[in-house]
Amino acid sequence: MRRSGQVAFLVFVVAVGVSLLFAQRLRRSDPVVLGAKRTVAFSPVGSGPRAAAVSFYLKRGDTVAVSVVDSRGDLVRKIANGRDVPARKRVRFVWFGTGADGRRAEDGSYRFRVGLTRQGRSVTIPYSVQLDTAPAQPRVVRVIPGHPPGPFLLPAARSPIGIIGGTLGRDVSGLVIRTDIVPAKVVERRLLPHVARKFPWDGLVDGQPAADGVYMLGIIETDQAGNKGSFPPRLEPIPGPVRGRPGVTVRRLGVSPPALPAKAGSLVTVSVDPRGKKYDWALRNLSDGPPLARGSTRAARLRVRIPARTHGLLKLAVVGNGRRAEVPVAVIGHRAPTLVVLPAIRWQGVARVDQSGDGLPDMLTRGGSVHLDRILPPISGGLAGLQSDVVPLLGRLSQSKTPTVITTDIALATGRGPRLSAFRGVILAGEESWLPSRTLEALRGWVKRGGHLLNLGNDSLRRTVEIRGTVASNPSPARKADAFGAVLGRPVSDSSELLVWRDSLGLFSQTGGLLIAPPGSIPSLTVEAPGKLRSAAGAKQGDPASAAWRFGRGLVIRPGIEHLARLAGNDAQALGLINEAIRLTAGR
Length: 588
Fold this sequence. Notes:
By secondary structure, this protein is mainly beta.
């Protein structure tokens, strides 16, 4: 019995092997489903094929069932059952991309399986069909010809060419997007060949040379399945970080503002980019008048000798390639008890300049990092707050005959300028939007020991930043209170009256008891301990919208009025307030 069982098993194995061999040979030598054609890719939500079709004809007539199977061979849906198909007649079946439950199947690769009822066999058509509902994902990888780290700069000897990567498709359009304006705007659109790999841009917009600014080369296309997609995926806001280097900057002139104060008689080196053209330069006082120094050159690094016996803030004007740019130059002169700090970190932090080549402005307000020695284009209205805050303040200081020393917050943060300990008073001349935490702590300690701080910024001292070398990075969100405990409200949308309700310091003694805060002013809501309020004006009793308070042995003054120094030019109350604020800060 045992031997007969072994023989039976051996016969079974041989029979199975023979049948498999016969079936394999039958598949190879006797195909029964002929001339199969199918939709390569489709998308029920795209602009191309909305369904997948398969067509074929049979060598011999049969009753067929047609199913869709996934990449594992599992059944997804039957799309035909019991249909009589005569020999040599092409038939067509359609799948709309849904499973047996009527829901859309997952994106992926599928095949059609044909069951032949009379022949008792089934055939899986070997060619797959792709169900794809994802948007096309083209992108501009980089801009050629090669250029140093940073964006491609126009004007240049050659035009930029964007190299296209990602999906390959049809209905391709190249986009030129200006990104340094809000909202970003497509300024040029150009049809490209199908399956395009390059996007050349001639630097023109509507047939004219593109305006100075930051641009990104983008692309729109439709993939094989009919799904449209673009790079960038949307315009406002453009999602970052952007992969690759699709940026092009148009800049006919650029100048780097000196980050540190200079000494009288010293040489100052300023980076200038006139795109290879000759340029003229002149160094003047803020009040204009004849140049203190001037010249013409093509040099990329301009070296200017600061005249002896000068101090304060000078301006360097550069004219070339049809553009004019002005940058401030702080000069340390004689000793004085009051230090004026310029917001140089903010000047670079809010400048819309692409330093990485990704086609987006690199700004601290966007949470990115910036180089503090960047070359800046001519900025409409000048550097942020220079004309509206700094220059009017220096005029007030001159008229009040208050001797000062001028430095920058970069110098203060890096220890490369005057030290706080040498001064009785410090005036923050503009918005100190970002300072390193150690600098804020140094200011707090200096005030606690008896220093007087006048904060003319509207939204200052609430955010930190890291500075390493010449790079500022990791800007923090705004804190509830600034470094001296002032909890700030929202900017006011209309002019508002501030009534003086406390004034033991005499800060408001020249205002007549009333102030007008213009739109955009940010009031203090309260002053946290250990601050002890001494002078305050607000919309009601107990409201310290504009205030001064003791902080340790020192004093903090926060007017909280937008562009106070400029407003003082034609408003008696504002003039009285800033004059008294300067007097208290200087300790007079």
